[in-house]
Amino acid sequence: MTVPRPAPDRSVEVQESAEALGRRLGSEIRALRQARDMTLTRLSEETGLSIGLLSQVERGLSEPSVKALHLIATALGVTVGFFFRDDGAAAEDGIVVRRDGRKRLDYSGGIFDELLSPSLDGALELLLCRLAPGSTSGDEPYAHEGEEAGYVLAGTLDLVVDGVHHRLAAGDSFGFASTRPHRYGNPGSKETVVLWAVTPPSY
Asked: Is the pTM of this model over 0.85?
């Protein structure tokens, strides 16, 4: 009699993957900071983030929020796109990105972005953004150069632009100048999925 093998625990694999991504992001931030000859104290002053939080991020013990990573990237002279993991399959002929070859970036609270564009060398950055229930980009709004637009594929999205709150459902879309202070989150009990475009890739 053959005893069936138990199915692998996918939650463990997902957790291990998230931890590995956190360590990779932290090591890249540390390497870039050191290459800029910048101390943690200086980075703290430039971003307004505590030295303790920055240290935890660099050691892979904590994931930054969307706004926090934007502040870190700006202080280090790069865009957030610089930190997309580069271990996916290369785009075919620089044109096609297969589903299992997307580059991914994880944030604190259960938000992650997948890069749908073949690269960030062009004028358009296309992202698939997934937000876990209750997750937000941060308590404070942020801004950057460019324009952005999006389409809600599933769930509910709270979008605040210039202090004005908008609640979007699946099928709704949006667009605004990225220089306008903005933040977003998922107020619902199910995952929110948004197709998000930014031009130029300044995010």
From this structure: no
